[in-house]
Amino acid sequence: MGRGGCEGTQRHAGLVRWDRFMNHRPLAHRRYEPTHYEHAANCATHALWIMPSALGGAALHWQAGDGWQRLMAWVYGAALCALFTVSTAFHTISWKKSHLRTVEHCFHMFDRVTIYFFIAGTYAPWLNLRELGPWAVHMRWLVWMMAAVGSLYIYHFHERHKMLELLFYSIMAVCPALVILSMPDQDGVLELAVGGLLYALGVVFFKSDGRLPFAHAIWHVFVTLGAATHYYATWRHLYKPCALFPPSLRLLDEP
């Protein structure tokens, strides 16, 4: 066999090895079908963060100085938990879907809807616990209106126009960010920008299924990093620092 034939055989062998970890890209208007390895990675990369999200929301509640801060802590904590819980549930059902086609479809829609409310919940503490410009106050309820409209779009046009759907997510993420820039107090804006950049970089992998093995799991990692950065910003700049235990427990340490 000539050198060209050997190189072709080696390339083919390399493709065969990758086929274990990645399927071919889907046709238009069809969803990508992950391999078993990718399914496992998709589940694990978000399941690991369900409990930390619940503890993170509780930590903000313990640090809250008034009822409004406590309410925002639960809204934000619920959004975090919902994102990772629903994503894990969907990917688990999708992995074991032999007779759960309808349930899988519903959870896929629920997963996409949850992203809209996660964006709204992430912004909620910043829009309600910080002073905003007079023209920006309306964003406090507009962000939830955008989440509701996005949910209706998912219900009626799920998976039909993928790029349009991605555009809607991007618009919803950017509009409140522009409002936050009007805050007189700019503490935490840098961390919010870094978190937003991590989400944006992750979108590259979100759109790379069938081109890069474990692309969706890598997207999950970027989501986790972005969420962690935004959580740090919220904890550090909107709530009292260094309160890791409930007040009732901290009293035990006081003389």
UniProtKB/TrEMBL annotation:
Residue spans crossing the bilayer: 71-93, 113-129, 135-154, 166-183, 189-206, 213-233
Keywords: Cell membrane, Membrane, Metal-binding, Transmembrane, Transmembrane helix, Zinc
Main location as per UniProt: membrane
Record's bilayer topology term: Multi-pass membrane protein
Pfam short name (any one): HlyIII
Annotated positions binding Zn(2+): 91, 216, 220
Record-level GO cellular component terms: plasma membrane
InterPro entries attached to this UniProt entry: AdipoR/HlyIII-related, Hy-lIII
Molecular-function GO term, any one: pore-forming activity
Domain of life: Eukaryota
Compartments where found: Cell membrane
Family, as annotated: Belongs to the ADIPOR family.
Listed name of the protein: Monocyte to macrophage differentiation-associated 2a
Phylogenetic lineage: Eukaryota, Metazoa, Chordata, Craniata, Vertebrata
Gene field: MMD2
